[in-house]
């Protein structure tokens, strides 16, 4: 499902290149990108998402060489194939929970699937919160909304950037369980970038890719 | 939810800024729309009331005053001229038509104009009810005069001396209403029309001490103005000169004087229009600053949209759509404001029995105003949209915010 092959990236022509180990992760697999700040975890996530173009090597998701896609097609592909849970969640305060969940459709210019939104709200226990604004949610509820948004278009790969940062132990465990369960149910490949040791402990069957080592 | 709906939500995410921008846009568009509506209607009224009148002849004085008094019934006349002038001009080979007018009295602010049925024919006026005057002290009322005086056919009224409301009432010579005119949208709407004889009789009755007096006054009958139509365009070159050479007579060409009048009014409208332009430019600057801040504040939202699959141009269109919402709302509010102000002015002018101006007037220039406002908003949104287009998504997604 996800393959990283000979991947290298540099921010500019003269700057030193970041080199990443090759990875082959099948459907439903879990990959942990672990390393200290500045080790390239988020950069690798951006490469997988097609937001950055590698200097060498390639990222292949479900048979698609992401770097080979034209820029416009890469955006459409990302909207369809990837789900992303950012560290700061980035839920829009201008919109309700339900409207935030409509954004994956609006972003791609496709009709909003209200049934899918309702189903995911119910599945993640957010059914009563659809009309609320993000600031009216608890941290855990907001995490679940961000997860629902990432799952909205049934992604092949689910990316999560530092999902447990600033969370206490119980909340961290809840979020990781939710991510793993959602990935399992949708058979998506789960890629988590973190420097938090609790993540590997909570997800023991995860393949760990050490960065900056 | 579509992109346009998302832009709407983003617009109202900062209600104070949106309201300020809307107010500025509405004021600018409103001021310009008001100028357009009023100047168009004044110009239309002027052209319509000229009604093919080539020359106005009256007593010596200001030509513009002659036109204002004789054609638009907005000013006092310069004086009277001998009745014989009517015959003299009618016999002139360059003159096709002479319509005499006698002014001097009014009823509840509406001028009583003594004339002949030719005056009504000039404007193609039709009776809505009743008949034209057949005898002295019979009158026909224009549509506004009927509305303001609530007089019906068969009703009687007494004119007051002078063109204001404070004159002495001619109580001995009441008029009888024989008809009312259908609304013509012209100067006749606000007049009380009667025969020349009526005006003379009213004043002779007031002034004459005895029959001898009355006979003397009858022998010195006058009219106030003559509305002249040329037999040939060549008359424009020589007839005014000929009239001005006659003792006590003054000629005024309505086309020239009204053009002069519109130029004078135009200076005022130019100031108002300039004011509107300044307001619109201030609004554009405000929209620009507002959008720059909005894009900066909303960078994470926009980056998230990109992350969710939105191409850069879609994010830029979102910013443009927000500006277009503002422009559309501001322009519509401004147009409504313009109509409202024009209606208010029309109400005040109607109260003063002056020009007919209405808020129910639409101008093609307003469509241009709407389009211009939208274009201005797009212009103001170009730079913020460009910033949105060039968002560094990977940086924004990484940085803790």
Q: Roughly how many Å is the radius of gyration of chain B?
A: 30 Å
Q: Which stretches of chain A are poorly predicted, pLDDT < 50 over at least 5 residues?
A: none
Main sheet specs of chain B: 11 strands, mixed
* Shape assignment of chain A: globular
Oligomer state of the chains in this structure: heterodimer
SSE string of chain A: EEEEHEEHEHHHEHEHE
Question: Which structural class do you get from the secondary structure elements of chain B?
Answer: alpha+beta
End-to-end gap of chain B: 27 Å
Please give the number of β-strands of chain A. 10
Q: Which class do the helix and strand fractions of chain A yield? A: alpha/beta
Fraction in beta strands of chain B: 15-25%
Q: Tally the helices of chain A: what do you get?
A: 7
Major sheet attributes of chain A = 5 strands, antiparallel
How far apart lie the N and C ends of chain A?
26 Å
Mean pLDDT of chain A: 89
Extended strand count of chain B: 13
Please tell me about this protein's structure.
The complex is a heterodimer of chains A (213) and B (401). With 213 residues, chain A is an alpha/beta fold. Helix content of chain A is 37%, strand content 21%. In chain A, β8, α6 and β9 form a beta-alpha-beta unit. The radius of gyration of chain A is 17 Å and the shape is globular. Chain B is built from 14 helices and 13 strands. Chain B is elongated, with a radius of gyration of 30 Å. Classes of the chains: A alpha/beta (213), B alpha+beta (401).
